[in-house]
Specification:
The structure is a single chain. By secondary structure, the protein is an alpha+beta fold. It folds into two domains: 59 residues, no CATH class; 173 residues, Rod shape-determining protein MreC, domain 1 (Thrombin, subunit H, Beta Barrel), CATH 2.40.10. The protein contains four helices and twelve strands. Helix 1 crosses helix 2. The longest helix is centred in the first third of the chain and has 30 residues. The protein is globular and about 75 Å long. About 6% of the residues have low confidence.
């Protein structure tokens, strides 16, 4: 105790100075928007660099798993190409002129930092504004949803994970299209909840849940998971639905950032309706 007292007496002034400097810095960042943006941008950049260097040391351990995952993803994408589909309709005496326009584009990225054990989890990816990433873009992997881009730096971006108490993503039951909001109300990183589904909607264990497409973030039909519990509490007009995710965010590595090329047009129309 005596040594601690002597240490405080000897260095108390210097420690107090450091404490006051830190307090001033926190107040400046907290209550000044410009400094807050600079802090967020700088922290994203330097933390991204740190995680990127650490990731380079451990990446080769998972090369076989990554190779298998990429091969499966390439096979799935090839199966979705128009040339890989058979047209069953037989036309007689008519000519069809099908026109297609690009709606979504995808930007590949790699996760360099991730969390699944907090109340509000975030993921860092090694793509930023230089690569066309913008806030409010959806992020998926080869098995399901990862989250939504929030903060964007030049080289790195922060993604609000689906395992975040603030996350709400439109999703629906595949077999009948009844929809609700995908939320995370538990502490299980493998299970999320589908809220706001009315009690008259047919829901059963084993039903597939997918994105509803009722937003400008995710296209419809992206797989999310399967129902593992569905019940209507006494006096409630809505189901309590637990959904086991198809993907495991604890070992997610490579992701795709979704760019909705018609987002602004849809938003302008919907804002006009609100007015």
């Amino acid at each position: 105790m005596r040594n601690l007292f002597l240490l405080i007496v000897k260095y108390g002034g210097f420690l107090s100075f450091l404490g006051l400097e830190l307090l001033c810095f926190l107040l400046i960042v907290r209550f000044n928007e410009d400094q807050q943006k600079i802090w967020i941008h700088s922290s994203n950049y330097f933390s991204g660099k740190l995680y990127d260097n650490f990731d380079a040391v451990t990446r080769y351990w998972n090369l076989s798993i990554v190779a298998d995952s990429l091969a499966s993803e390439n096979a799935r994408l090839r199966a979705e190409l128009r040339d890989a589909r058979f047209q069953e309709e037989v036309l007689g005496g008519t000519v069809t002129d099908e026109k297609w326009q690009q709606h979504y584009s995808f930007n590949a990225a790699e996760i360099v930092n991730n969390s699944i054990s907090r109340f509000n989890n975030y993921t860092t990816i090694n793509r930023g504004s230089r690569h066309g990433i913008k806030p409010r873009q959806g992020v998926i992997d080869d098995k399901g949803i990862v989250g939504i881009v929030t903060n964007v730096g030049e080289y790195y971006s922060s993604v609000m994970s689906i395992l975040n108490k603030e996350s709400r993503i439109g999703a629906s039951i595949k077999k009948n299209n009844f929809f609700g909001s995908l939320v995370w109300q538990s502490n299980d990183p493998k299970v999320v909840q589908l809220a706001d589904v009315p009690k008259h909607a047919p829901v059963a264990v084993g039903d597939t849940i997918q994105t509803s497409g009722y937003s400008t973030v995710f296209p419809g039909g992206i797989p999310v998971g399967k129902v593992v519990k569905a019940e209507v509490p006494d006096g409630s007009n809505f189901h309590n639905i637990d959904v086991a995710l198809f993907n495991d965010l604890g070992n997610a590595r490579y992701v795709y950032v979704i760019n909705n090329l018609m987002r602004m047009d849809q938003k302008s129309v919907e804002e006009t309706n609100d007015e």
